[in-house]
């Protein structure tokens, strides 16, 4: 119980002492180099997100999803046909008919 009381007292002392180490905020007019760099990076990020969103909207306008689906369906149909033909050829090579 004494250990718990000591630990609580130390944590309270450290919490109260930490308030004295707070750094005062800078005024809005006093912008440092770091804040300028951060603002610049944020603006670059926002511009890149806007550009990417514009590209996505443009691609959606081209209806590529529908074209890709049609291409996939045509490819599956052609591959299925040729797979069936190949299967028939292989079957007749392995099990020839005796006529």
Automatic annotation (TrEMBL):
PANTHER family: APOLIPOPROTEIN C-II (PTHR16566:SF0). Its main location: secreted. Keywords: Chylomicron, HDL, LDL, Lipid degradation, Lipid metabolism, Lipid transport, Secreted, Signal, Transport, VLDL. It comes from Carassius auratus (Goldfish). Component of chylomicrons, very low-density lipoproteins (VLDL), low-density lipoproteins (LDL), and high-density lipoproteins (HDL) in plasma. Plays an important role in lipoprotein metabolism as an activator of lipoprotein lipase. This is Apolipoprotein C-II. Residues 1-20 form the signal peptide. Belongs to the apolipoprotein C2 family. InterPro entries: Apo-CII, ApoC-II_dom_sf. One of its GO terms (molecular function) is phospholipase activator activity. One of its GO terms (cellular component) is low-density lipoprotein particle.
């Amino acid at each position: 119980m004494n250990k718990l009381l000591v630990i609580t007292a130390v944590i309270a002392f450290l919490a109260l002492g930490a308030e004295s180490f707070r750094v005062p905020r800078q005024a809005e007019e006093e912008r440092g180099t770091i804040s300028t760099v951060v603002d610049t990076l944020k603006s670059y990020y926002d511009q890149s997100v806007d550009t990417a969103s514009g590209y996505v909207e443009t691609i959606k306008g081209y209806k590529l999803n529908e074209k890709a689906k049609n291409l996939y369906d045509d490819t599956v149909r052609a591959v299925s046909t040729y797979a069936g033909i190949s299967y028939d050829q292989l079957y007749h090579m392995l099990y020839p008919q005796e006529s």
